[in-house]
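Quick illustration, no need to memorize.
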Amino acid sequence: MQLTDDTIQAQCIRCNATHVLMVNKNDLKRWEHGAVIQDAMPYLTPDERELLISGICGTCFKQLFGEEED
């Protein structure tokens, strides 16, 4: 994961696709210091948050684990 200004480049560990996310630096620091990611960065989609947490993009996550049920 690479942070430049307010842009993060994160690469999926499964498919190696690089994703660029817009993230506030202070929000990223809050998450890195223990805040729950959905509280620190609620503007990210669930797939974007999963990429930061596990390193797996949404497409690969769905292939591995299926769709989430309501």
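The beta strands are 2-4, 7-11, 18-22.
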